[in-house]
Amino acid sequence: MKMLIGGKKVDSRDKRTIDVINPATGAFLDTIPMATREDVDEAVENSKKGQKEWAAIPLLQREKIIHQFLRLLEEHKREIISVCTRECGKHVGTTIFEFNQTPTLFSGYMESAKRMDGKLLVPGTELGHDGKTAQDLIMVLHEPLGTVAAIVPFNAPMLLYSFKVAPALAAGNSVIVKPPTDNPLTDIMITELLLEAGVPGNTVQIVTGSGSKVGNWLVQNPGVDAVSMTGSTEVGVGIAGIMAKRLAPYTLELGGNDPFIVLDDVDVGKVAKQACGSRKGNTGQICIASKRFLVQNSIREEFTEKLLANVRRIECGFDDDFEQTMEQYFSNVDRTNTANEKIGSLISVEAAKRVEEQVRHTIEQGANLECGGVRNGAFFEPTVLTNVTKDMDVARDMEIFGPVWPIIGFDTVDEAVEIANASSFGLSGCVMTNDWKLGMYVAQRVQSGGVVVNGSSVYRNQMQPFGGQKMSGIGNEGFTTLEELTKVKNIVLKGFLA
Asked: Which residues of the chain form CATH 3.40.605.10?
């Protein structure tokens, strides 16, 4: 596939390419260009024209263009789901869940844009610098930021593309997308459909290549007015440093090590099943997946036994003839179901090796391996670790991005909160208890952007302001936060009401 710069499908200037491989099977899928710095600079220059062109189109007409895009998306859904599943090595049910969220994000942000109407301030509420404000009309308006760089991660390329591109376009910005290097094909396909629907070619563009080069060139370009990025904390801190030097805004959704807290008044079997589902989805490659399982010691042995029964039923595998099973998945998939469902591979062999190293490190620190722990190429067997103590790396800041369940015991509720907060991350979390007041007590004390009481930490409502605390990020995404993709301007008509 090609990059999309200025509405044209293009190769890189030096013709270098990167292979895209199905991580589950090793099969070659396609190539993408490895963009040069000149390619990136051209896209940024184009985006300035594209932003003005897009902003000049009335919102009603922009909405019609987005609705045409959604019709095209529906027409091409089987092809998109097929490509996304193969380039990610996912289970097809996970891909369809992701696809089903995409149209609602674009339509929802357009609806939010209709309500982003600014305000008029009440005149004469204070004297002002000249003592005469009673006859002044003060308008507070929202303007587009300009060019937004959208840096999309590998774990949910379709969904997280939409969480970045949809609000940027709804707010009147132009967008340059830097898709994940391992699995960029889906994002290229979606961008092609946006252009086919009528979004100007300079308004939404896509440049491909490694994040360390292409991503850096994009962020470093002074023509980029804002960055929206989901990825690692290390990369996010680097982006924040670059953007801070020119006082440009950024939204960063970064790493997490989300606690799954289990108190001893619960139905242990039910909660063990939820714990399994909260980690299994997308082979554990979800930022808000539960990654530390804090269980009250009085039920820890029973919980471990029942969790193991669920985890041992999970199979690793990839069915490359999955089209015949698509129909049953076109309704919402229950991701907490653990019976008779395979999980796919991790995004790459390198990612699986990283999980393998982290599990080995945790065992060397004193944890016990109860099941799994075996890597086969890019696959990693579902793994349960016990005897994990609160001073181990996995209990604090070592985020394992794979199907691993470390179980950490605690005695008191306050000790559970202490362990949960010992991490530098603070993205999401959850607590399981039959006492709602106790659940609220824990939720108010856990330091994270969200806490779910009696549900998995894998919870993201499109309306909610979604973001992290501490080293898990800054800024929020969600329909209620569209203003973050705008800048505020005050226009004063002095003496207009005289």
From this structure: 3-254+474-492
Q: What is the architecture, at CATH level 2, of domain 3-254+474-492?
A: 3-Layer(aba) Sandwich (3.40)
* Per annotation, catalytic residue among 84, 287, 316, 430: 287
Beta carbons of 173 and 188 less than 8 angstroms apart:
no
Give me the catalytic one of 253, 370, 381, 399.
Answer: 253
pLDDT above 70 coverage of the chain, percent: 97
Q: For this structure, is 287 an active site residue?
A: yes
- For residue 51, CA distances in Å to 55, 169, 198, 256, 491 come to 6, 9, 14, 34, 22
User: Does 364 participate in catalysis according to the annotation?
Assistant: no
| Nearest by Cα to 87 from 170, 203, 223, 208 | 208
Q: Which one of the listed residues 164, 280, 291, 306 is annotated catalytic? A: 164
Point out the catalytic residue in the list 98, 192, 477, 484. 477
Q: What is the mean pLDDT of residues 24-42?
A: 98
Active site residue 253: yes
Q: Are 428 and 449 in contact (CB under 8 A)?
A: yes
Whether 38 is catalytic: no
pLDDT tens across 245-295, in order?
999 999 999 999 999 999 999 999 999 999 999 999 999 999 999 999 999
Q: How far apart are CA 310 and CA 267, in angstroms?
A: 15
CATH hierarchy code of domain 258-461: 3.40.309.10
Which residues belong to CATH 3.40.309.10 in the chain? Answer: 258-461
